[in-house]
Amino acid sequence: MPRPPVRPERQHPHPPLKVLSTRVPVVVLLVVCVGVMMATEAVVVMDKDPYSNLVVAVESDIQDCFAVLQATKQILSEASTALVEASDGRLAFTKVTFLVPDTIAEECGLVGKDHPMFGGQPWTLQPQGCGVSGSLLYLPYSFLINISPTARGKQVLHEWAKYRWGVFEEYGVAGDPVFSLAYYTVPNLTTNTSPSWTPNYCSDATLNGTFKEPCDWPDCEFEFGAEQAAQSSLMALPTLSSVSLFCDNTTHQALAPTKHNARCAGRSVAEVLHAHPDFQRPMQNVSVDGGVDVEYVRYDPGSEGSYVLLVEMSYSVSDDIQEGRWTLLRSAIKQWILEDVVEGSSLGIVTFMDYFDYPGTITTESSLTVVTSANRLGLSNALPYSTTTTSRSKYISTALSYVRDSMTSESVVILVTFPDNISSYDTEEKLVEAAGNNTVWPVLYTYNNDTVVQSDVELLQTLARETGGQVVTVPDYIYQNSTDKQSLRTQLSLVQLLRHITAASSLTPDAPPSQLQVSQSEANTDLATVDVFVGDNVDVTTDLTIMLYSQSQPVSLTVNNGPVSTQPTLVAGTAYKILQTFQKGHNQLTIRFTDAPEPHVTEVLAAAAVGVEVSVEFWASHDLSFLYLDDPQDPVTLYVKVSDVGGRAVVGAEVEVEARSGTTSVWLHLRDNGGGADVTGNDGVYSGFWSLVSQGSGTYTLAVRVTPTTTSRIVGYTQPVVNSEGVRCCGSALNVDPLPSQHFNATLYFIVGEAEVRGALVLGQPPARINDLRGAPLATNVSLNFTAPGNDLDRGYAQKYHIYWSRDGSSWSLMQDTTYTLVEGGMLAQVVFTPPQCNQQVLYKVNAQNWQTQVGEDSNIASVIVSCDAKPIPIPSQVDGTSKALIICLSYFGGVFTVLLIALLVYLLYYRNWFGRCKESVSDNFHRGNTTVSGGHTNQEMMESYLTPKTQNNQQESSPPTYQAPQPSQQNSPRLSVYNAPAHPPPPPPTQMPHMYPKKDRAPAPQPRREAFQLADENKPAIYEDTSNHNVTVSDTDADSSNTIYDTAYG
């Protein structure tokens, strides 16, 4: 029997959680026919090896249950056969376990639905980069029932490759500006001859067929002939009967405009696959002649779950090590049982210590019991008040065996332990065997990188991975005025992790979260003021819960200058509970103490609003417990998925992640545009790099804010019908325009997690790689468009762009004599220039350089052919070396009527002093300090205005500087020109990462080194030039007490 179903790890809106391992992809083939529930919330399990036991979760609302299961078995058999051939005999699906809800185990009467956006097409949610596993593999009802058997197996393998191995499509998508249906190939091009087009598929042979007329090149559909010789690629042509392999280094077409080339930097699919552990296995000629073995497991989706607390009581967690360590642990568990455990759940409590005194040191504090209102208090007091042993030794496998044999083998075991002194007896094999069918979630309490044993941590990570759990951590919060006392924040952190574990392992995944965390703050003063923002996702008709963690009861609490409606009630240890009504928007919570001997912590919890059926999921590419932001080769990416409960994506919204440390916040902007960190636009997954912190290393509370815009909408069918066509997945962005939509107008805000930043930025990171470069002829010119990188990854403005060209991709030349408009990171940039050659294919690639002279990686490759016979069109010219003041003066000499010329000259000579002031204004603009530039603002004013937080009613567009490269020495070089120039110039960028000062400690900004560049004004360009050789330091804004810093600041 496999272990009970466990929900995939995902970060709920309410728990601030610390995840030791990165977001673990769920190894599951999801067979669902979704009605009103998100596909990502299906009940699934994670198994040790998906090839020896692939677990398939079956939803309760499917049609023809028996037929669906039989079809799935057949499809997996076909996929397994294809997998054996494609992996050279290494891999095969040998067994599948279906988890069948009790509600449909006897009969199937409900109608299943296809996906609300993708209809009857199989689909993989794949928001991360090359070689990184996807989040979900989705097979809809129509696909299982209606598609021809031969095609289905290879289509499943196609999706499995994306989901498991992190590769991408090797074909073009109709209407996609980056990944076109056809492209030029270099061998087919000769000067002054008609260009030849190639269908955009990776294959090892010429494809038989013709392009479907009329053609709007390169967006032209290719019609395949009946006979094909191609054997690859499964990522391009899985439905062709002749195709059975992936493209390798000998057949891969690195210059083709495919998503795989763009995201994997031109590497072949086989090259990415062979770097995965699956392909490190020896060739063993796996046989699939017997098909796939099947096992059916019934479960009750209405069960509230079964949990066993397995708590270490060794000396490592005692109060003797650090004051409050055991006391706060006990208080947190008591609070969780009293406030958060769902009634009807089963709960057992076991403590363990040294193995040598077994069984005396393994104690059942409470047998497995159904939680009721009558026994809650007794269960909450089951743990002993103190530890008694002086030994640090522990035998975890013995304790797990005890739980398995004497209590349960079908539960979630929450293992609270300190990762040190684990016995050498506890090997990976013994731990996994001892767990049985229980799912184990190790909680590392408390975790300090300097004191834990890393090999013990890795041992527990293996235990969690093999049993379907996940390692989570409570950081070693130490009271700032002591070296041996645990901070009160420890209790809050453990409570939040326990909430997360019970939510993530729930057997009712479609149930909305019981509560949202909308605020968290910490203060060490007698008077604390907390801003609590309540969004549309909060039910304000009921009381919100204020949980205050303090050593003493407050003397007064007010909300919006009025007293709270209930007095504080002591729940457990240092936790006080207050019920209070709040209004939507900003609320001011004020807490006063007679004395505050140590920091006190506040969180505000709320019930989810009824009718706002929007789900928000948050995760990161890296371990949030030990986060290093200073590795240029491995940037940290944040992801937020916004969708309604039916799986429809929310597109066009403004999504931000707030990283708060103390009273200072940094807002990180995430985008769903298919460029930069975002893999696919318009899929509802918003992505962005984390490259800025306000206080250096330390703990940051993360919150998500989703704000509607004039274009934000929910897209997809509200009642998805069987055989609905849906949108094609997945080009640079989904074309969601044909789908029905409704306006999205809810503002959402809640805490989603915490991050321990161990390594902060010193000089910043290089600009992000451009993944969506596209090119097109514009009369006699070339137009290149791309999502602009920033100074640090996607934040701020880069210093310059480098544009390279080549005829065949073997050697590249830098375009010289360049002038163009720099665009803020994440925005669409355009460069227009004269090509080096016409009537011939020219390849282009771009990278960016930041103000620390760091250069980002080369972009994907775009190819453009410009006709020699095209008629030129005027391109807006750029006036070099001319200030706005001088342009105003010179405009007087451009009078339309020649009869006014003499009078105009007399006028200017008479007012020659005014003319002199114009020239003086030009000269002044070449000096730093507080000289006025571009519109009458001083440099300091522009810098502070730029760092001032944007509000919804007062948003200002930040405009780019315009870069002019030095004039080249060679003649007749291609020239780039500005094509569009936004408005409102930003301040000049500093030459290093800013150090953030509070207002009272703000350091004066030294003068920067001399560096010439242009600032594009809304009308005409202005010149600006630095005059010193120093670095510049940017301090945080004093616009308000929160010291908010936006990520658009220069790095």
C-alpha termini separation: 55 Å
Gyration radius over CA: 31 Å
Helix content: 10-25%
Q: How many DSSP helices?
A: 16
Write down how many β-strands occur, each being a DSSP E stretch of 2 or more residues. Answer: 51
Question: Widest sheet: strand order?
Answer: 13-12-11-14-15-16
Transmembrane segments: 20-39, 885-910
Biased composition (Polar residues): 950-975, 1029-1051
Organism: Petrolisthes manimaculis
Biased composition (Pro residues): 983-992
Secondary structure layout plus pairing:
Blueprint: E1 30-31, E2 54-57, H1 65-86, E3 95-101, H2 102-105, E4 123-125, E5 136-139, H3 141-146, H4 149-165, E6 182-184, E7 197-199, E8 209-211, E9 222-224, H5 259-263, H6 269-273, E10 293-299, E11 306-312, H7 325-339, E12 346-352, E13 362-370, H8 376-380, H9 396-406, E14 412-417, H10 428-435, E15 439-447, H11 454-467, E16 472-475, H12 489-504, E17 516-523, E18 527-534, E19 544-549, E20 556-559, E21 562-563, E22 569-572, E23 575-580, E24 585-592, E25 600-606, E26 614-620, E27 627-628, E28 636-644, E29 649-651, E30 654-661, E31 664-670, E32 685-690, E33 698-707, E34 713-715, E35 741-743, E36 748-759, E37 774-778, E38 781-787, E39 800-806, E40 813-814, E41 819-821, E42 828-833, E43 841-849, E44 862-865, H13 884-891, H14 901-910, H15 912-924, E45 932-933, E46 937-938, H16 939-947, E47 961-964, E48 976-977, E49 1012-1016, E50 1021-1025, E51 1045-1046
Parallel strand pairs: 1-5, 2-3, 3-10, 11-12, 11-14, 14-15, 15-16, 27-36, 31-51
Antiparallel strand pairs: 4-5, 6-7, 8-9, 12-13, 17-25, 18-24, 19-23, 19-25, 20-21, 20-24, 22-23, 26-28, 28-32, 29-34, 30-31, 30-33, 33-36, 34-35, 37-38, 38-42, 39-40, 39-43, 41-47, 42-48, 43-44, 45-46, 47-49, 49-50
Helix pairs in contact: 1-4, 7-12, 9-10, 10-11, 13-15, 14-15
